Amino acid sequence: MKKLLFTTLLIAFAIAPALSQKNVSNDEKSQRKERIETLRIAFFTEKLEMTTEESTAFFALHNNLEESIADLKKEYKHLRTKKKNSDSISDKEYAQGVTQRAEFKKKEIDLNSSFILDCFDILDAKRAIAIPEIKKNFRKQILTKRNKTVKEK
Questions:
Q1: pLDDT attached to residue 54
Q2: Which of 50, 108, 125, 152 could, after both became Cys, cross-link 54 (CB 3.0–4.6 A)?
Q3: Maximum separation of any 2 CA atoms in the chain, in Å
């Protein structure tokens, strides 16, 4: 009887978080993504004071960067999940994982650096150097809006 009660409680606690999460359809996710992208374009265009031509060239370059980073993250995620599936991981495998993470971060930094350097062809140096700070401010603004929305609900 105790085993049955324990098993039932365990299952209930395991399922509860999944049931309590809001179901969001793919359509809503894509709409949210589009809204954020529209806000990003407006934010960057305003902060960098870009012309239409500069904005078009900049966001083509920026979208390529985002795709490259997304591909890199997928590759790294695949490596991580492959490691998690094994029951016992040796010290050598941990060391290999740390090395892979360092290589991933280095590639990500290289992609961001080359993006900034490529932006020198589109924007002047002063505006191109400001891009990482503007990205940080945009991310902060979006998170603040999201947190306000969550608190209101």
A1: 92
A2: 50
A3: 74
